[in-house]
Specification:
single chain; about 80 residues; two-stranded antiparallel sheet; about 45% helix
Length: about 80
C-alpha cells in the first residue's frame, strides 16, 4: 500500500531527511520521481494499482528503490 505523506509522523520524516541528505534533496527526489511516474514510468514496487504518485514515490524511497544522485538532478534506481 502506498504511503500517504500526510500520515507520516515526525520521526519517519526525519529518517527520510537523513536517508536523502536533507529536506531539499527529499523534495527534489520526490518531485522528479513523481514527474517520471506521471509520464508513464513503471513503478519499482509491487502492490496495488494506484494513481497516488507521491505515495508510490515515498514507498519506493522507503524501500531503498530510488535515491538522488550526487548532482542533485539524477534519480538513481536500485
Amino acid at each position: 500500500m502506498a504511503t500517504d505523506l500526510k500520515k507520516l509522523d515526525y520521526p519517519e520524516l526525519e529518517a527520510l531527511y537523513k536517508k536523502t541528505g536533507g529536506k531539499y534533496r527529499l523534495t527534489v527526489l520526490l518531485q522528479r520521481r513523481v514527474n517520471e511516474l506521471v509520464r508513464g514510468a513503471p513503478k519499482l514496487i509491487a502492490g496495488e494499482q494506484t494513481k497516488d504518485f507521491i505515495g508510490i514515490a515515498l514507498e519506493e524511497l522507503k524501500q531503498g528503490k530510488i535515491s538522488l544522485g550526487e548532482d542533485n538532478q539524477t534519480i538513481v534506481k536500485s
